[in-house]
Design brief:
about 280 residues; alpha/beta; Nitrilase/N-carbamoyl-D-aminoacid amidohydrolase; six-stranded mixed sheet; about 25% helix
Amino acid sequence: MSTFRAACVQLCSSDDVAENLRTASALIREARMLGAEFIATPENTTLMAADGAAKLERCLPEETDPALPAFRALAAELGAWLLIGSLAIKVSKTKTANRSYLIDPKGEVAARYNKIHMFDVDLPSGERYRESVSVAGGDRAVPAALPWGKLGMTVCYDLRFPQLYRALAQAGAFLFTVPSAFTETTGKAHWHVLLRARAIENGAFVVAPAQGGTHANGRHTYGHSLIVSPWGEVLAEAGSDPCVIIAEIDPAASQSARAQIPSLSHDRPFTLREG
């Protein structure tokens, strides 16, 4: 298996879809000029709205969403694999899907993944989030084929559910994507350790493009896009501003890590019993 360059595009998306699309496209072009063959953008690539109602008002069904055809055309123009971290896609009068897209170098949609786990939390900082009010959670894990092996697609809050990554790894995924918009509070506390843990537990690369900065509703996201090796090493890291980071990915490193720590073959059934 050949090595390849993977890139994370870090953004600070606003509630202006057209401007976000221009910014993301420019950074995707920059990543391709730097030799990236696989380029990933964050969660909410084209829209960080003030709240769920504002997002729902701005969203469209997949067939009329303006961003998807633009990104498909860009992938075909650049001859690169694009992982569009997520777009808000209207699926009913009251709900959107937080949907990640894998687009191949011919501009075809190779896979879709709807974020499974909804971010419904009350943080010690006073921040309150209820993603499930306006977002329909997915119910299907998605391993997708790349030229270098299988990719496991996830989004943001999914990161806190290790069973999802275990299932993807046991389905053959050697690389996970975790496009995110982590809050500054949770990012400072948990972002690095969770990403490194998912990599180490499964002997997999992790490509985690993030939102960073202050957005339309005053929300602060953490940034620090990361690319992590199967041994848990940070191969590339961003700061807090929009940028591109790149790392060399060797699929054989995943095989090596899994050979040294073959835990994927050591799972055993068990019962849970008190006393």
